[in-house]
Amino acid sequence: MKLPLSWLGEFVRLEADTGELCRRLTLAGLEVESAERVAPGFSGVFVARVLKVERHPNADRLNLCDVDAGAVGRFSVVCGAPNVTPGMTAPFARLGARLIGSGHGGGQCLASLQEVPPLQAAVIRGVRSEGMLCSERELGFSEDHAGILALPDDAPLGAELASYLRADDTVLDIAITPNRGDCLSILGLAREVAALFGLKLKPPAIKSALLMPRAGQANAGNGGGALSVDILAPELCPHYAGLPISGVQIGPSPIWMRRRLELCGMRALNNVVDATNYVMLELGQPLHAFDRAHIAASRIVVRRAGQAPGGALDREFVTLDNTRRALDPADLLIADPEKPLAIAGIMGGLNSEVGAATTDLLLESAYFEPMTISRTARRLGLKSEASYRFERAIDRAGQIRALARVAELIGASAGGKVSGAAVDAEPRPAPARQVMLDLGAVNSILGVAVPGAEVRQRLRALGAKVKSAGARRLMVAPPPFRPDLNEAADFAEEIARLKGLAEIPATLPERASTPATPNDYRGFMRAAREMMVGAGLTEVKTIAFIAPADNQRYPGMGGGAVPVTNPLSAELGELRLSLAPGLLGALRFNLNRQAAAFHAFEIGKVFAMRGGAPGEHERLAAISCGDFALGAVGQPATAASFWTLKGVLEQWLIALGAAARVEFEAAGEAEHHFLHPGRAARVLFEGEPIGYLGELHPAEAVRLELTNPCVLTELDLVHLIAYGFQPRQQVTGPPRYPAVRRDLALVVERDVSAAQVIAAIREAASPLLESVEVFDVYEGGSIAPGKKSMALACRYRAKDRTLTDEEVNRTHGELVEGARRRLGAELRQ
Amino acid sequence: MREQLEALRAAALAELGDRASAEQIEAVRVRVLGRGGELTEVMRRMREVPAAERPAIGQLVNQVKREIESRLEALQERQRAAALARSLGEARLDVTLPGARIPRGRLHPLTLVMEQMLDIFASMGFEVAATQDVEDDFHNFEALNFPPDHPAREMQDTFFLPGGMLLRTHTSNGQIRVMQHRKPPLAVVCPGNCYRRDELSVRASPMFGQIEGFMVDRAGRVTMAHLKGVLSEFARAFYGPQTAVRFRASFFPFTEPSAELDISCLLCAGAGCRVCKQSGWTEILGSGMIHPNVLRKVGYDPAEYQGFAFGMGVERQALLKLGVDDMRLFFENDLRFLGQFPSFAARSAS
Ligand SMILES: [Zn+2]
Hints:
The structure holds 2 protein chains of 2 kinds. Helices cover about 25% and strands about 30% of the residues of chain A.
């Protein structure tokens, strides 16, 4: 909301400077986003009257004017404007004046006023001119250069035009929060300023018979030309008032009005539409002017689109901006008995628009329910200054006053006269609101004792009626323009805001400090992150929206992709099923910026449809590509591979204490089509699949233009987090007796896995076998094709004695023989 | 016999001069102390010595033996030291070369900032609760006092999902989720990601982190003054003890009264600069007393319970704290940016 300080000054006399005003408004919840000084585009220009106009002796198109500028003097001026007439009041620039719009084609301020050369005496076709009469363009008001600017006849002669038009002004731009519809007017903001600074508010003085209690209402039974209103949807329009005006002459509005509209960011159109907009800005009541000639039967019907006569349905409507709008049966319309005239509260129709030929008007001033306006405006994607105000609730009791005010302005600027009784239909009068306010509740919310007298005074400043209602209690009638004030918290806010939040002390709550329960979830995440970082992976964060094609390539671990109903773009049309595409994106981003390697992880949510509803799952994923461990200078580097990333995972699982519950097994051929079929593992936790580990499929690597092998893993964290909450196993001391190692080498079929060999050995083993580990796998050479040799270290230990060589040899011999038989393996010597 | 021993000693010690080579030393050791060496020979002839003299001769034998042994020992020690000194002079390392490059990653700056904030709130007695990103209208809007079609909903442009669900636009859903299942007193912070329909740009991201916090207790026990106290302490703990704070009235549907917290601009310390639009202040979070309608929605009686709530953007705090000005840096994951952050979150003392 734009607030020109000159306009504010009409309603409240403020002594504080602009900086202080901005600060106080901002702290009170009316954030001033900018304060812009508007300087006039001219100097040395005065209000003057043209006394006499004579033809220039040497030029048909020019006139010689005798100009009276009051105390400034009388001047003889050569003027070429076609509209100059004796008796008109106009801006006069005397010699030495500066005009921003003089001497170039455009009227816009291309230079600062000081750079414009001062006006000099000129001899035009042999006649000396002592200044000039100015057009709007010369003054920098508009592009209008058709004639000189006509000023109102009551403008004081000799006055500086800049001060008469208040061209030297400051305009605040204030962000109004959605709860403060009452501040979408100059008067509303003036009320805030008055309440904040403890000043008196002077609302505009409006003299009108309309303001007599329900004076203009008695039109029932009037014949012929009288207006009538039928409200078929009183729950959406509880109050509708209309006023007939006739004899208007459409033309431009007075310059001061146009200037104010423009300072407030609105375009001037004509003297009728401008007056309605002016009153909307001033009082906050949106108004609409219909060309009455186009209203059938002088009858207004306020109804839904679905309530057309004869049970019909209006399906579309052409608005003022010449756009065909599809209607919903619930949309509220202003109609006559034959046709819709306006979409209520949003925009008028082309069929009843006020235009150059209009002479008779119907002025509308109504209250529409915020929700209906909001719903229709949103559906149509059509926001107007009017709908913006109706949505945020206007003054429930301000309709007649605004009507009186606009009639007054149209009378002055367009010559229109009230031509009949007003219609004032209020099928649902506003309920009287009374709130019993407990001062104790206010104090308990704010944490500070506010004296009753202060509460009373602050609420009154906002327009509320306040009465005592017993000890520490007030009966408050909130003003009709503040539907947001209903209970203690609302009043507490007003008091805190006006008082200043700085007046509330900052204290710490008294709380019993019992030790907090440890947050295992947070602890798990923290440990997981730090483990990954310690193992060489950098944490990344990627955005959850991805392209459907990426979800197809990386389908995660089951469930369908979750489509976003209203995505930012098709490329961000779904929620990720997997963290892999984001990690690959980050990898490519870095490789394109000369990174030699990329080792990263992400902990984040993925999303999948489960049983028709979108669900979310916490995942950990990691990616590794390029040299992983570099060694010292001159020593060989270790490149990222299946083994390095598996090592990272294993170390993490050991740290978690979950290693014994996790298994890796070869993934099925088609299980993860983005992984190398021979280098992909399924990860199981207590037998349940929780993720994968593998090398990126070479074809996918080619598509992504990766030259080094890239390894990926992704694990669902649900089970691990749950396990992380369980107590750890029993701790024991170190063994007392030494272990004895015996190795064996078995030649097995090539596709027998280490896990199978170890399982067979464990089956064949005596309880003395403490551990068995693979330490070499060998193919080729003396090993038959299709076979491989696997070397294993077996470690034997007894709890209660040192084992003898004979005992170990015998036990190991049995183990070797047992394993060999189970695996159908040969023993390699 | 005595003369023989003296001669033996003199000869051996003469040979074991300071310049004796390793070979000479070894030769003396074998000749004198060896199994068939000179001293053994003397010992074998002890029988020939008269009984009265035997103890004295015996003593002399031991003395000669010790003397030679100790001389041998000293020479050998000297030789080892010389060998060591020679080897130390060879194969010196260039200690300025880098060590073996043990892999090490970094934590994401948003994690570091989030953890630090959570640590501060945890130290002030708040528990940390994780809540869901996929949410329904009730928990994201309705229970938070956003009526349907209310313009306040437009402050938060929402992503909708199938099945009548949506992506939460703020972590305030956590407030509802926790309060629905528990009774006051409560002091909880809910960290997490939120989503709004903004293109990724310098200023905005369609996905961003937030921390929602709230404290509820019997009416009068958690007031606006406490809100100010807790959040002022937070601001000073997070941004530094010199940070000035101010509370500015504002509007959120789910709080009443509502306030935004500004801190003195970190760049100009309040003097006014381009970043703070000359105001000297920077907004960091929104807060307020929980709206009575919100309490009613979770089944609390506003006459009995009261509390405050606040919410703050993680990226915003990170941008301010790190002094960078582009939101996209957090999601590009450029190693040259990420590589500037530490590998662990500094823990507060608690
Ligand atoms: Zn600053």
